[in-house]
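Acyl-CoA synthetase (Saccharopolyspora spinosa), 448 aa
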Amino acid sequence: MSVSEAWVTAALEATIPQLFSRNAAEFPQRPALTDDGRTWTWAEAHHEVHALAAGLAAMGLQSGQTMLIMMANRAEHWLIDVAATHLGAVPSTLYPTLSQDQVHHIAQHSRARVVVLDGADQLRRWSKALRNTSTIEHVVVLDKAAMVSADHRFRTWKSLWRLGEQRLRDDPELVQRAWPAIQPNLPAVILYSSGTIGEQKGVVLTHRNICFAAAALHQATKPERHAARLCYLPLAHIAERMIGLYAAIHDVAHVHFCADQGGLLAALVRARPTLFFAVPGVWAKLAAAIRKVPAERRSDPQALRRLRARIGLDHAVWPASGAAPIEAALLEFFGAIGVDIFELWGMTETTGCVTTNHASAHRPGTVGRAVPGVEVRTAANGEVLVRGPLVCAGYLQPDGAIRPAADADGWLRTGDVGVLDADGYLTLTSSPSLGPGDPDQRKRWFDR
C-alpha cells in the first residue's frame, strides 16, 4: 500500500474520539490546551473529557441527540464539545450574536436536549428558546451567577463535572465503553448558517467528513506534531472547527485560546501558531500594526524575523486567507516581510478547505489546487462542483432526517463560479444566474 493510500484508509476509518484517545495514550505529557495561564496535557484533557462525558451521560444525553453550545473560545468549550462526541451525541456551536428568534429556531429545529452557556449574555439570547422548546432537558452554565435556581433544568459547570466524576468512580469504564461503538459515518457536528442568507440550515458533518478533511489538510500543509494553534474565531465557523479543534486533534497540536478578538495580536505573539487562518480584514489589521514600525527597521533579514515575531507569525508554515478576495497590496506587503499568505476556498458543506495554496504549490491570484483525495470540476455555466469524502452528509430536517446535499453521483453544487487552469489551480469569478437552487449554497467559508 502506498503512503497516500495508507493515510486515506486511516482517515476514512477514524473518529474524533479515536484520534483523541490516541493522543492521550501516545503523548500523555505533551501540552494539549492552554487558556488563561493554565495548560492541560493530553492526559489531563482526556480525564476532563471523560468526566464531562460521564456527566452528560448521567443527565441522559444519548447517541444521536443534539447538544447546543453558546460559549466564547475557551478550553471548556473545546472540552465539552469533544466530550459529547464520545457519547455519539452531536454538538453544535451557535454564533454568539444570534437573536432570540434565531436561537429559538435552531433549538427547535435541532431538537436539542442539552444547552451549554457561558453566562448572562448568552442566557438572554436563549430566553425565548428556554420558554418554548420542549426538548431542552438540561442547561449548563459556566458562570454560576447566571444560574436560574427556580428552573430545575439548570446546573453549574462544576456540578456537571462533579456528577461525571462520581459516575466514573462508580463505573470507570463508562466512557471507554461508549466511544468505540461510534461509526465513522455517524453525525459528529451540526453547523448552522448565521442566517444572513435566507433561513438558517443545519449542515451535518460526519466523523468521516471531519477526519478525512483534517488528514487532507495535513497532507497539504505538513505541520509538525505538537506545534501551536490559535483558536480565536467562533467555533460556529467551519474554519475554526477544523483548524482549532478537529485538525488540531489530528495533528496532536497545542491549542491556545483567544476569547476576545480585540486581544488577537497579543494572543498570536504568545501562541506563535504554525497554521493560521484569517479573513482579509484581520490581515489588514496585522499589516497596520507592522506599518507602525519605521521602514529603516525592516531592511535586513534579522529585522524581518523580528517583525514576523512581532505579530506572532515567525513559526507559521501556512498563513492563510479566505472568505473574500484579499487585496494584492496586502499579499505584496506580507510577502516583503517573508510571510506568504496562501489563499484558499471552501465552505461548511465541504468540511472547510477544498482548495488551497501552500508552500509546495503556490500560484498567487488563485485559491489553489484541490486538497488530496478531492475532485473539483466546473459545470458548463462555470459553477464549481466538488466530490470527495469531505462533502457533508446533508442538511438536517425538522423530523431528524438528513437531506443529501450532493447529487446521486456524489457531486456538490457549491454555487460559486470559477475557472480551473491546466495545472488544477482554481480562480473564483462572479456568480452566474443559476436558476432554481439552494441560495444557502452560495455562502463561502464564512457566513459573516
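The chain has 15 helices and 22 strands. The radius of gyration is 22 Å. ok done for today
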